[in-house]
Fold this sequence. Notes:
2 copies of one chain form a homodimer.
Chain A: E1 2-5, H1 21-37, H2 39-50, H3 61-70, H4 73-91, E2 98-101, E3 107-114, E4 117-121, H5 130-143, E5 147-152, H6 162-170, E6 176-178, H7 181-190, E7 200-202, H8 207-216, E8 221-222, E9 230-235, H9 241-252, E10 259-264, H10 267-281, H11 287-297, E11 299-302, H12 306-316, E12 320-324, E13 340-343, H13 349-354, E14 380-387, H14 390-406, H15 410-421
Parallel strand pairs in A: 1-11, 4-5, 4-7, 5-6, 7-8, 9-10, 9-12, 10-11, 12-13
Antiparallel strand pairs in A: 2-3, 3-14
Amino acid sequence: xxxxxxxxxxxxxxxxxxxxxxxxxxxxxxxxxxxxxxxxxxxxxxxxxxxxxxxxxxxxxxxxxxxxxxxxxxxxxxxxxxxxxxxxxxxxxxxxxxxxxxxxxxxxxxxxxxxxxxxxxxxxxxxxxxxxxxxxxxxxxxxxxxxxxxxxxxxxxxxxxxxxxxxxxxxxxxxxxxxxxxxxxxxxxxxxxxxxxxxxxxxxxxxxxxxxxxxxxxxxxxxxxxxxxxxxxxxxxxxxxxxxxxxxxxxxxxxxxxxxxxxxxxxxxxxxxxxxxxxxxxxxxxxxxxxxxxxxxxxxxxxxxxxxxxxxxxxxxxxxxxxxxxxxxxxxxxxxxxxxxxxxxxxxxxxxxxxxxxxxxxxxxxxxxxxxxxxxxxxxxxxxxxxxxxxxxxxxxxxxxxxxxxxxxxxxxxxxxxxxxxx
Amino acid sequence: xxxxxxxxxxxxxxxxxxxxxxxxxxxxxxxxxxxxxxxxxxxxxxxxxxxxxxxxxxxxxxxxxxxxxxxxxxxxxxxxxxxxxxxxxxxxxxxxxxxxxxxxxxxxxxxxxxxxxxxxxxxxxxxxxxxxxxxxxxxxxxxxxxxxxxxxxxxxxxxxxxxxxxxxxxxxxxxxxxxxxxxxxxxxxxxxxxxxxxxxxxxxxxxxxxxxxxxxxxxxxxxxxxxxxxxxxxxxxxxxxxxxxxxxxxxxxxxxxxxxxxxxxxxxxxxxxxxxxxxxxxxxxxxxxxxxxxxxxxxxxxxxxxxxxxxxxxxxxxxxxxxxxxxxxxxxxxxxxxxxxxxxxxxxxxxxxxxxxxxxxxxxxxxxxxxxxxxxxxxxxxxxxxxxxxxxxxxxxxxxxxxxxxxxxxxxxxxxxxxxxxx
Lengths: 423, 423
């Protein structure tokens, strides 16, 4: 792990994988085929890419029952607790429609309407994270979305992991379709005989899924295309080096391109964390991935004081930020750019990944400068409401026409004038 | 104007101009040149494209004073009234940061932080709309954005229209730079000696501006790339055909590709509006543009009843929707997709373009299914806050570790365990 004295500008930015032209062409061809042949295309791609011969795309009731049999009761309890926490947090984000009235009869307002339908992509195999299902489904449900569908590639035997089925069922979502890749995104965007089209597609996926989401964007909405995960720990001399090392490694195990960074004014802490990272790495199951991440994208920035450490942190604009300093809560107001802020020694980043309540879908790659965690607002849209009375138009019509004519838009002005002339 | 009985699906969608490959290459080259040569590139492109030889990019105080001299006092009054209304509406959109606490010491929250800096593009010449400045600057100011810059191409003489300068000055924005096109977008995204980089770029522009915005998206945030304007009027037999015709034409005069549509169960009204549109067109200054729009993208859909008219309207998901029916306000709840809803006979669409208060930057091309008017939220970002106490981690640590291990992420589990072992 590199220890660096900050002298110049710092950045977490890595190039996003934009796909090769072969990949983009393959994705376009798959989308075209799904539009043309519908379900038949889905069945044949699933056989080709996932090795599964299916009779039906929709998961059956009996498969949910079997999944509950398989799941450890302790895990089921944890899933239920997490759902409750995440639901509680997201309910607090719900915005109300509002209206305001004036004495002249004017009514202005903002109507909040849930999206009609959304689709969630759940990756297959080891990346079929139950927590992703919670983090995407719960804000959509809190928003009041009427129809939520999940697509996920089946295993060779045509099955879906028990933890996925149980989590979805616990959330009340049973429209789960056994299809993955670009073909699943095409089905959600355009609809097939079995899968109804949706208005927005969210959830992580591999490069083919990301390219397909980009290709259908505009026809439907999509969430962000996330980059590799990041953590920045901002710590002072009294912070626990073992905790920090463990937290850095919890990001590093995600991906060889994940980035784990410590920013501290203490060169003693810098050395202690470096040593602890190396030591803890030794026994980690995913040590090869984590070691590559630490080597290529890990760093300790040593600053001249805490103020400079705050500046460096804001410049990095990290996805996850831990504050392990004295009176950490008082620093929150000085953090201008971060997806999620974990305050104090017991707020380890995994607390937020699974359990505490806030969303784990967060802006990466420096986009926390202008982007937000996935939230209820991402599953509603707003409409302005404007109701002018005769009196209100009479009072203000001349000003409105004047502004229209200032912009050279005579028909705009006449639409006002024709109503005033009627007097 | 075509009168159509609704038999099948309807749509307002038109292909967006994605630019030619020559245009995209030209834009990429301009961006590269601005990154390399900074202000010098801005001066030479401004000479080349706008025919203006400038000594300085920044508008000077004396130019604002001269602009006030030029402006009609009635127009200035209208600008001030509009600013007051728009500010009042957008202030109501401001979201507060919030926190919630639990007895075990847990603190969860959502911090709302304004963007550091935004840039507004204002087109040149006849499209230099003061209303665009108000509609982009006011939500950014209500959000608390610290630094707002305006870029706009100068006229040949090196000047900026008086209405633009006065509107900006009335809003308190004086960082106005005389540069337009892709070069202005590049300057806002990357910064030059004179123009500081921003976090988000908003505002309309021609195809070169749109392509440049797409090219820098990701480095900075951008607003939507808007399609041509649209209006749908939903009216019953008692609606005033002259009002409707005037309102349809007020959209049609914007652009040959604008779309103006009436949806009504009354074939008498359909005929009356068709006749009124033809008649009103005759004396319109922009009659050629408006006539082309009505011919190519105008339509009257005649439905079997009001319920079907509501369904057709939701299917169209228009940018602007006028409800000219009996008890129009009661219909608002049934409108699921529309950028702005104008209720009743005196709420002509231009009321919202300039004056009433809600934003005139609205989702086009059917995207009202999932997009919202420009608003204060577009100029802030949120950060989640998670603070767990020792007690809270002790109580919940086992569940968190169980979920981490369920997903095969051992380092995540150990980051929790190491803190519990310390007990």
